[in-house]
Amino acid sequence: MIEMIKVSKWFGAYQALHEVDLSVARGEKVVVCGPSGSGKSTLIRLVNRLEAHQSGRVVVDGVELDDNPQNVDKVRREVGMVFQSFNLFPHLTVLQNLTLAPIWVQRVPRREAEATAREFLARVRIPEQADKYPSQLSGGQQQRVAIARALCMRPKLMLFDEPTSALDPEMIKEVLDVMVELAREGMTMMVVTHEMGFARTVADRVVFMDGGRIVEAAPPAQFFGAPKSDRAKLFLSQILGH
Amino acid sequence: MKWLRENLFSGWVSSLATLCLLFLAWKALAAFVDWAFLDAVWRADPQACRAKAGACWGLITEKHRFILFGTYPYEEHWRPALASVVLVGLWVFSAIRRFWRSWLALVWLGGLCVIGALMWGGVFGMPYVENERWGGLILTLLLASFGVTFAFPLGILLALGRRSELPVLRGLCVGYIELIRGVPLISLLFMASVMLPLFLPSGMTIDKLLRAQIAMIMFAAAYLAEVVRGGLQAIPKGQYDAAHALALPFWRRTYLIILPQALRIAVPALVNTFIGFFKDTSLVLIIGLFDLLSTIKISLTEPAWSGYGVEAYLFASVVYFVFCFAMSRYSRSFEHQR
Known about the structure:
The structure holds 2 protein chains of 2 kinds. Chain A is α/β, with parallel strands linked by helices. Chain A contains 9 helices and 10 strands. Helices cover 39% and strands 25% of the residues of chain A. Chain B has helices at 2-7, 12-38, 46-51, 58-69, 78-94, 103-120, 137-162, 167-181, 185-199, 208-233, 237-245, 250-280, 292-301, 309-336, and strands at residues 135-136, 290-291.
């Protein structure tokens, strides 16, 4: 589903990614973790070209991401993304947030788009909030709207960039529950997160990054049980140690 | 009472200051009332005005038709009057959110046709009046309305162009904005009225009013572009990320996501620019168009009435103030809406 081959990325003189190789199979759930500044957000943002890589190849569902805007467009239509800061459109209601892209990108008739939107709102357990504005919702509710918004495009792949990092602790679970459910339904998922409980239950593979490189990639049992690298051990002791 | 004691008489210094200011305010107000009402002459009689010290409102009584309608034929004054009412009506109508539908464009088209027919005439038995003779309030309103209507979209395009990733487009927009902003409106108007005809092929002329209008549109667009850019810069990057991730193409992203938010942020600055622009229309007097302020100037050149500029300009101020204050109040109500 995702194929990254020797991908490098610079921000000016700073190299954020060093020849990263990663492949994600259809239906696979990959959790990416690592200390801040390790390049994990950059990595996930390459997948729908919110950032452009400078060398190497990124192929998503058979389409190579390059300077051709048509390819980029094709990939973005099939990849949903959820952000740390929700990024809902504040001037639109929840329902309008959900139906915008289906109506204007996929040309779905409004009535049909709204029916789909209400269906997904029910799936993320907030069907009653359809006519509110994002600012009227709690953080957890907003993030669930953001998940529903991405799902309304019927993506083949979902990207989550630290979806719970901006949430109050009591709201993290409601978002993770939705994500676990999505994983159970067989969605291909790439998730940048520090929620190790989520990684344990859902991930097929945990990818540990540091300094713009993938240091370790292993099934969760192996990664948490017997991390190979010292940096991964240090990282795990830091986030699990308290 | 408590408020008074706490804010105005909290100590002997502040009490003294309050009393002094009250005294001054009272003197100024009394002097104004004396001048404007008690000693004022209301008849259109210059002799009577010279005899008294107060305001000479007779000037306004006598000249208001000329001030409001300029050199438009006297017996046809009802036409610019009605046109002004229609134009103001169109704006008031458009200010109501409930009517923000696509048919509003048709209403405007119809309204402008009515205004055109009224002003030019030549139909329905109304004699033809060439636009050289248009003047006064309707000219101010028309220049401002058309100016804003064309300058606003142009300004938005310039602002978007200035933030474009295409270097040529960006360079052109930056160049245009800096060039126009760096030049006073007066010189632009002069250029439009004097220089532009030199560049046109011989035999081709553009109407003076149209030339002034184009200059004003170009000028306002440059300013509005910077105001809109300010709004655009206030949009968090996450909004672009989300729009990109949903595969929204450029124009839809701009129209559906970015502009609605950017323009709302820019409302106070936009209205500020609109108000400034409305008053700037008075500068067309220097190229020989008779807007509201020019007609006053001409009225005062008549020997009998010279020296009563204060009354005339006060009248103009009231007219301008009514329009500008309406814009300001409307924008306030708009900021509080969702």
